[in-house]
Design goal:
With 455 residues, the protein is of the alpha/beta class. Helices cover 40% and strands 13% of the residues. A hairpin with a 5-residue loop joins β1 and β2. The chain is globular. The N and C termini lie far apart (67 Å). The chain binds ligand F0G. The site of ligand F0G has 22 residues, from α6, α11 and α15.
Length: 455
């Protein structure tokens, strides 16, 4: 099999790859997107900003103007911010599903529950395939096409595979999906199938799938679309740009994001630092990462190893999207948490389920992995890390419809039955809304309505 390293990523005039550890700069990246010298991860940097710094006022006004444009590139909530993304040789080759442009919702009920009145959710689950992955995928899939690849591939807990399969299909590329057998939500698997991916359910976990993929890309001419790919993170940066634009460039005090493989927190943190350096914001929000207790590699890395080495875990959580024990981007995430002064916390399965139902009761909903943000916020308020007068944005990463089994199991009372946590049912039962089977009579429905009114 010929090596494709020379065309793994096209040489662009306006950006370079920089190793996050040894700082080595290069014009091209190998197929594994790792530093040729020390093997660590790469990030994309824009050296020309030093001589010719984009002006904050100009950026803000052209981003605003593009909102009125009917140009397909401007209709994308990612490419609208293209001034801070790697330049394309042929803009007409962009693969887009009009991603981004996601809502920022106030959360009045959760605000009361947490005692933080200024609380919002940036709902990335409102993207075309239902998760934040689309914002990264439009950029990385476009660069895959531009580099001449026919095949793209990823390891996934479900959302990356759904997104990759969609963007590959739109761009005329073939896609290969590696997912842990029995450990991803059916809706996500169904998306990959419908969008035409070659889907392999491997008898391992996500970490095993990712290890295998890294070997595969060295042997076969496939372009990897995991978040190790720095083009993904450039696209995911736009979440923060769009959020700050929605807040009229007034930075919130806190942004809280779920942590799995830790690409998204890294991307948001990179955007915040770039926005500060370009004068788009005058102060940095604190970026906090929340993990499930059963998949808490970063929490343990920061607590037990002071962020110096990764503490791997055997991951187990019902929030299958973040069931990851060996997160690839842990160094990037640790860096942005440290630089922005954020926190890293963990939450229990019961806390996740409770928070998910509370977000659902706002008429918004999200998948379990996204709900760690609200559960984490409660903890950070108790610790006085977040104070009531501060403003907080939760990043909801996936749509409610991504994991209906969890939601139905929860409301029917099948989840956490006989839970070891004695407080579990006391906390969860009032939130459950089990469906009722009734005789088809007006009487039966009226009685139910009256009972509901009383309760
Ligand atoms: N939330 C959802 C809904 C996700 O799907 C993921 C990751 C995360 C949070 C964590 O983001 O990995 O950037 O820290 N899902 C990946 C996937 C791993 O394959 O779909 P992260």
């Amino acid at each position: 099999m010929p090596s494709l390293s020379s065309r793994a990523a096209g040489v662009q005039p306006d950006f370079r790859f920089r190793c996050i550890v040894c700082g080595d700069l290069s014009d091209a990246a190998g197929e594994d997107f790792r530093c040729a010298h020390c093997g660590d991860l790469l990030e994309i940097v824009y050296p020309q900003w030093q001589e010719d710094r984009p002006r904050a006022l100009d950026l803000r006004s052209s981003w605003r103007e593009r909102r009125l444009s009917a140009n397909p590139v401007d209709l994308s909530g990612v490419w609208r911010f293209r001034d801070l993304l790697p330049a394309l040789r042929r803009p007409e080759d962009i693969i887009t599903l009009h991603e981004g442009n996601t809502p920022l919702y106030a959360l009045p009920q959760c605000a009361r529950l947490t005692g933080v009145p200024r609380l919002w959710a940036k709902h990335q689950g409102m993207n075309p395939t239902g998760s934040f992955k689309d914002c990264g995928m439009t950029v990385a899939a476009t660069f895959a096409g531009q580099a001449g690849f026919r095949w793209v591939a990823c390891a996934s807990t479900g959302n990356t595979s759904a997104s990759m399969a969609a963007y590959a299909a739109r761009g005329g590329l073939r896609s290969l999906v590696l997912v842990p057998e029995g450990k991803i939500a059916w809706s996500k698997l169904s998306q990959a199938l419908d969008y035409g991916a070659v889907t392999c359910q491997l008898r391992t976990d996500f970490d095993g799938c990712l290890t295998l993929l890294q070997e595969l890309v060295r042997r076969a001419p496939v372009y990897q679309l995991n978040s190790i790919n720095p083009f993904r993170l450039e696209g995911q940066k736009t979440l923060a740009l769009e959020l700050l634009e929605q807040l009229d460039w007034h930075a919130p005090d806190h942004i809280i994001v779920p942590g799995g493989n830790l690409g998204n927190s890294s991307a948001i943190g990179k955007a915040l630092l770039e926005m500060r350096d370009l004068g788009l914001i005058s102060r940095l929000p604190k970026l906090s990462v929340i993990q499930a207790e059963g998949a808490n590699a970063l929490v343990r890395t920061l607590r037990e190893a002071n962020g110096k080495r990764l503490v791997r875990v055997q991951a187990e959580t019902r929030a299958t999207a973040i069931r990851i024990g060996n997160p690839a981007s842990w160094k990037k995430a640790a860096h942005v948490i440290g630089t922005t002064g954020g926190a890293c916390e963990q939450v229990s399965e019961i806390e996740i389920a409770q928070a998910k139902a509370e977000i659902g009761a706002e008429g918004i909903g999200c998948e379990p992995a996204s709900a760690v943000t609200l559960a984490g916020l409660k903890k950070l308020v108790r610790q006085k890390f977040v104070r009531p007068e501060e403003s907080v944005v939760l990043v909801l990463t996936g749509n409610l419809l991504k994991d209906p089994d969890f939601t139905i199991g929860f409301h029917r009372g099948d989840l956490f039955q006989g839970s070891a946590d004695e407080n579990g049912s006391a906390v969860l039962d009032p939130l459950r809304r089990a469906p009722m089977v009734l005789d088809a009579t007006l009487d039966a429905v009226m009685r139910t309505l009256e009972q509901a009114e009383k309760s």
